[in-house]
Design goal:
heterodimer, A: about 325 residues, alpha/beta, seven-stranded mixed β-sheet, B: about 400 residues, five-stranded parallel β-sheet, about 45% helix
C-alpha cells in the first residue's frame, strides 16, 4: 500500500504543477513511512518540502498556499501528532468555502497515518476519525486495499474540498495484485464497496478493520453463515445507499472499527442503519470496536483491537432465530 | 551529579557550527524608543501629499468607527470591536500595500480592509451576522476577518510563500493584537516565515489590553518587537498613533519583503480608546486617567497639528475631510438600515462543492418547513416576506 500511495503522490504531482507536498521529514528522508520517497529528488524541495516541526504551522501555511491557487498535500506524521493542527483544520480548513460563500474553496489533502497494530508507543496509534467526521466541511476517506489507496488519494488531491485522508498504518505493508504501471485512476469519494457478498448478515467496516472482517467472513462460512462485507472507504460523505441496501437484504448488521465505541463512528452508523432499516432488521445493530480507553501500550494492544473472534462473537449474538444461511422467503 | 553538572565540570567543548547563532542579533533588535516622525525633524522630509492622504483617511476612519459603534446600539450590528484610537495603524496597513498584495486582518481590522478599498458595508457583514465573510477575498485581496487569534498569520505566510514560488512579487501583511502574540500560531507563523524567507510583514497592534488583560500580564518580553530576534526576523518598534511613522515603517518592511529580504515584525504601540467590544466594560480594568493621557496623543490631532504647522492643511481641508467622512457615515447608516436579504437554503449551499446525500435530505427538510410556514402565512392572510422564494443549488450532488 505504501508503494501505491507514493505512486499516487508522484502521479498527482506530475499531472498538476499546483500539487505541493509538505510536512515534517517528507523531503530526502521520504517520510517516516517512506510514502513521499523520491518526491523531493524528482520534483525539487519546493514541491516536496520539509517544514519546521509544527503541525498548526504546516496546515496553516497550507491554507495560505491553497488561497493562492496551489493544491497542498500535507503529512501529519502520526495520528496523534495532528492534534496541534485541529484549530486550523476545524476553524479554517473546514469552513473557508462556507465563510466565503463558495468564493474560496480550499483543495487541501491532509494525510494522517492512523490506527494501531504496529506496536507503536502512545500517541502513535490513535484512531481519530470521529473528530474529523463530526466537522462539517471535511471529507474523510480511508482505503483498505492497495488499489483504493491509489485511487482514493488521487481523488482526494483532485477534490476541490479539503479531504482528511486516513492511512491505515498496519496496512502499509499489505501486498496485493496491483500493477503500479497501470493503476486505476479515481475511485469516487462517497462510494462504499461491497468486498464480499453474503446473505446472513452485513459487516460494515473501513480501513484497517476490513481485512479483519473478510477473515471473519471466511471463518463464518464454516459455521454456515454467509457474511456480506461492506467497506465504507468514505466516512464523509457516507454512502447510505449501499449500506442500507445491504442491511435490508441481510436483515442483520455489525459495525466493526478499532476507534473507541462510545460516541465513535459506529454509533452514527448504527443509528443511521436503524433509522433506515428498522422494519428489515431481525436483530439490533451491534458494534465491535476498540474499548473506550486511551490507546493501550503495545504489549496490550492485541486485547484492545477488534479481531476475528470478537467479530464472530458479535455475529453469534445477533439472536439467530431464522435459518442462518439465508433469508430468502423470510419476507 | 547530574548530566548537566558533568558537562559543566568537564572541558567545555566548542559547540559545532550548527549550534552557534546564525545571525548577529544586533540588527534584528528594535530601537529602545518607538520610531516617530510627527513632531520630529523627519516630518519635514515626509511627502506632504501622503500625509494629507493619511489625514483624510484618519478622519474617515474615526467616523467609520463611531458610526459602526452607533449601529451596535441600534441593533444593526451584532458586535463591533472598535479601532478608535488605533486608526493610524489601520489606515497605514490598508494603504501601504500594492494592489496585488494581500491583507490578512483580524476581527478588529475592518477599517484596514475599508482603507484598502473594500466596501464599508461588505466589510461589516461578519459583524452584522447575515453571513460569515461578506466579500470575495480575491477581489480586493483581503482575507476573511479572522476571529480565532493569530490563526490567520500562517495563512499569510503560506500565501506569500506560494506567490514567491510562482515568481510573483506579492507581499502579505498580517495583523494581530498584543494578546495574539501569546498564541502558538504567532510563533509558528514567524518561524515558518523566517525559515522560508517569506515576503510577509507582521503588524502587531499593541493596544495595551487583550480584552481586560494588560500587556504586563501578557508577556515578560522587553517589547513585542523583541520577539522577532528569536526567529531571525528584524523587529521594529513604532509609535502606533503616528500615522506617518507607521506608514514609513510598514512601507520599508513591504519593500524589504518584496525585494527578497524576508519577513519583518512591526510592533505599533497604540491604545484602544473604547472597550474591547460593545459587550465589554473597560472601567473594570483601567483608570480614566490613563485613557485621558492617551486622548492627548490622538492620531488625528497629532497629524493635524503637524500639517497645520507646516502650512499644508487649512480649515477648508479639515472641513472637506469631515464632510467626506459624514457622507460616508450617512451612506453607511442608510445601507445598514436596509433589512439584509437572507436565504435560508444558503445554509446548505456552500458546505461542500457538491452536497452530500445527508445534506440533501436536511435541505429538503428545511425546504418543507419553509413551505409550510409560507402556507400558514398565506392562510393567515399575513403578508409574504418573499424571503423563501429562493433558488436551489444546481449541479451534481454527491450520492
Amino acid at each position: 500500500m505504501a508503494q501505491a500511495l507514493n505512486r499516487a503522490l508522484r502521479d498527482a504531482m506530475a499531472a498538476d504543477a499546483a500539487v505541493h507536498v509538505l510536512g515534517e521529514d517528507v523531503g530526502p528522508l521520504g517520510g517516516v513511512f517512506r510514502i513521499t520517497d523520491g518526491l523531493a529528488a524528482e520534483f525539487g524541495d519546493d514541491r516536496c518540502a520539509d517544514t519546521p516541526l509544527a503541525e498548526a504551522g504546516i496546515l496553516g501555511t497550507a491554507v495560505g498556499m491553497a488561497m493562492y491557487g496551489l493544491r497542498p498535500v500535507v503529512e501529519m506524521q502520526f495520528d496523534a501528532f495532528a492534534y496541534p493542527a485541529f484549530e486550523q483544520l476545524l476553524s479554517h480548513v473546514a469552513k473557508m468555502r462556507n465563510r466565503t460563500r463558495g468564493a474560496m474553496p480550499l483543495p487541501i489533502t491532509v494525510r494522517v497515518p492512523y490506527g494501531g497494530g504496529i506496536g507503536g508507543v502512545e500517541h502513535h496509534s490513535d484512531s481519530s476519525e470521529a473528530y474529523y467526521m463530526a466537522t462539517p466541511g471535511l471529507h474523510v476517506v480511508t482505503p483498505s486495499t492497495v488499489a483504493d489507496a491509489y485511487g482514493l488519494l488521487r481523488a482526494a488531491i483532485a477534490s476541490d474540498d479539503p479531504v482528511v485522508f486516513l492511512e491505515p498504518k498496519r496496512l502499509y505493508w499489505s501486498k496485493a495484485d496491483w500493477s503500479p504501471e497501470s493503476p486505476e485512476t479515481v475511485a469516487p469519494i462517497g462510494r462504499a464497496a461491497v468486498r464480499r457478498t453474503g446473505r446472513s448478515a452485513t459487516l460494515i467496516s473501513y480501513g484497517p478493520s476490513v481485512p479483519v472482517c473478510l477473515e471473519a467472513a471466511d471463518a463464518a462460512r464454516e459455521e454456515g453463515w454467509e457474511l456480506e462485507v461492506v467497506d465504507l472507504r468514505s466516512l464523509v460523505p457516507f454512502d447510505d445507499e449501499t449500506v442500507t441496501a445491504s442491511v435490508r437484504r441481510t436483515g442483520r448488521a455489525v459495525v466493526v472499527h478499532e476507534a473507541t465505541g462510545f460516541a465513535g463512528p459506529g454509533a452514527e452508523i448504527a443509528a443511521r442503519v436503524t433509522e433506515r432499516c428498522f422494519h428489515h432488521l431481525e436483530a439490533p445493530v451491534l458494534r465491535v470496536t476498540g474499548f473506550d480507553i486511551p490507546y493501550p501500550p503495545p504489549m496490550l494492544e492485541k486485547h484492545h483491537l477488534p479481531g476475528v473472534d470478537r467479530v464472530l462473537d458479535a455475529v453469534a449474538r445477533l439472536q439467530w432465530e431464522a435459518d442462518l444461511t439465508g433469508r430468502e422467503g423470510a419476507r | 551529579m547530574t548530566v548537566l553538572q558533568q558537562t559543566a565540570a568537564s572541558r567545555r567543548p566548542v559547540p559545532p557550527p550548527a549550534w552557534r547563532p546564525r545571525t548577529d542579533p544586533a540588527p534584528l533588535l528594535p530601537d529602545q524608543e518607538p520610531f516617530r516622525v510627527l513632531g520630529t525633524p523627519a516630518a519635514r522630509d515626509a511627502d506632504p501629499a501622503l500625509l494629507k492622504r493619511l489625514y483624510a483617511a484618519l478622519v474617515l476612519g474615526r467616523r467609520y468607527n463611531t458610526q459602526a459603534t452607533a449601529l451596535t446600539r441600534q441593533g444593526r450590528l451584532a458586535v463591533y470591536p472598535s479601532s478608535t484610537g488605533q486608526e493610524a495603524c489601520e489606515v497605514a496597513a490598508g494603504q501601504v500595500l500594492a494592489e496585488r498584495d494581500w491583507l490578512f486582518p483580524s476581527y478588529r481590522d475592518t477599517l484596514a480592509a475599508v482603507s484598502r478599498g473594500l466596501d464599508p458595508v461588505r466589510a461589516l457583514t461578519l459583524l452584522r451576522g447575515d453571513w460569515h465573510t461578506g466579500y470575495d477575498p480575491r477581489e480586493h485581496r483581503v482575507a476573511p476577518l479572522s476571529t480565532p487569534l493569530a490563526t490567520q498569520l500562517p495563512h499569510a505566510v503560506g500565501l506569500a510563500h506560494a506567490a514567491r514560488l510562482k515568481g510573483d512579487d506579492v507581499v502579505a501583511l498580517a495583523m494581530v493584537g498584543d494578546g495574539g502574540t501569546s498564541e502558538g500560531d504567532f510563533h509558528e507563523a514567524l518561524n515558518f516565515a523566517a525559515v522560508w524567507r517569506a515576503p510577509v510583514v507582521f503588524l502587531v497592534q499593541n493596544n495595551g489590553f487583550a480584552i481586560s488583560v494588560p500587556l504586563a500580564k501578557q508577556t515578560a518580553a522587553p517589547s513585542l518587537a523583541h520577539k522577532g530576534v528569536g526567529y531571525g526576523i528584524p523587529g521594529r518598534l513604532v509609535d502606533g498613533n503616528d500615522a506617518a511613522a507607521v506608514h514609513t515603517v510598514l512601507d520599508e518592511a513591504v519593500r524589504r519583503a518584496r525585494s527578497g529580504g524576508g519577513p519583518t515584525l512591526v510592533e505599533a504601540v497604540t491604545y484602544r480608546m473604547e472597550a474591547h467590544t460593545n459587550a465589554d466594560d473597560a472601567t473594570r480594568y483601567r483608570e480614566a486617567d490613563e485613557v485621558e493621557t492617551w486622548r492627548g496623543h490622538d492620531p488625528i490631532a497629532l497629524l493635524e497639528r503637524e500639517l497645520r504647522e507646516a502650512g499644508q492643511l487649512g480649515d477648508a481641508d479639515v472641513a472637506a475631510a469631515r464632510e467626506a467622512a459624514e457622507e460616508m457615515a450617512a451612506g453607511l447608516r442608510a445601507r445598514m438600515n436596509e433589512e439584509p436579504v437572507t436565504d435560508p437554503m444558503d445554509l446548505f449551499a456552500h458546505v461542500y462543492a457538491r452536497r452530500t446525500s445527508q445534506l440533501r435530505e436536511q435541505a429538503e427538510q428545511l425546504r418543507a418547513e419553509l413551505d409550510a410556514a409560507e402556507e400558514t402565512e398565506r392562510t393567515d392572510g399575513t403578508e409574504q416576506t418573499g424571503q423563501t422564494e429562493q433558488t436551489e443549488q444546481t449541479g451534481e450532488d454527491h450520492r
